[in-house]
Amino acid sequence: MSSLRQEVPEFWSFFIYNLTATTNSVISFSRSWQRGATELAARGHEVTLITGYETKENVTNLKTIVVNTHLKGISANMFRMSEGSMLWSNMKFDNYLLSVAEGTLSDDNVQALIKSKEHFDVVILERLRNEAFHGFCAHFKAHCVLSTSMPASRLINLQLGNSAPPSYVPEMCSTFSNNMNFFERLSNAFAYVFLTIWYRSYMQPLHNNLMHKHFPDVPDLSDIFHNISLVLINAHTATNPPVPLLPNMIDIGGYHIRQPEPLSEDLKAYLDSSNEGVILVSMGSILRSAYISDSKREAILNALGNLPQNVLWKWDEESMPNQPRNIRLVKWLLQNDVLGSVFCQFPVS
């Protein structure tokens, strides 16, 4: 395992790949690492950011590579993907993200970067079942840093050799908490073993082939898979259950939060006039409202419609069937600014 604890230059050259932001629907994920990239650049580092959206920040030493040419046809119904058993959900998710990896590496702008003679000291990869992108680290001969927008997953723990007992660390796509009964622990342990075998025997070879297709001169994936210097985890002990973490696995939950900006006059008036307060409902931009099944939507509406509070719901469509009076729809809003209002009581996300 390589280490960042050595004599280094005052200013580094960073390459940041924001995986989840390269699919067209997840701008909210994109904004978090755009803030991180902007902050690094503002401190004097040279930063290259691959993302799905242009950054609005005007920083001279921040270069943005927008990936969109090969990903426009790649989308996912996350509600449907989560249906069925946790095994089936994980397998569908793996195959979906493999198509995202293929589309990204085939992008003309990314190909130009790979073929360039750019130098990077550090490569930061958004880690979400995208093993083929470890080729960036080997290709640029840079320290490999992983970031994750959720608590450390089974694969990250396996990658770093971190202990994450399935007796109290639930598998991704499961409905279990960290306080499982015997049968839940048994089911979670079975999923842990099965999905690890599935990954090692099926998904890793596919990513290895994809990596060598675009990085023909790098070592085998199995040889570089564990060469990780640092993991940045979007979690916090105040909001997430306690789990074992190695010293180079760092919780950075809340790093992207900024001071709220003034709301629009219309939105401010709505919040100010809500005597009982406002509940914010937002599934982010990865869960599209149109994909919610009728039965789930009606169940949510029945619960929210009987509350005394007003409800501000980020909804992608122009209208909502059977919309209660206390629910207002907005196509886009910045959660950070709404949550900063004293009238916003709590979010549902």
UniProtKB/TrEMBL annotation:
Record key words, sorted: Glycosyltransferase, Transferase
Signal peptide coordinates: none
Coiled-coil blocks: none
Single Gene Ontology MF annotation: UDP-glycosyltransferase activity
Xref: Pfam families: UDPGT
Family of the protein in this entry: Belongs to the UDP-glycosyltransferase family.
Protein name from the UniProt record: UDP-glycosyltransferase
Organism: Photinus pyralis (Common eastern firefly)
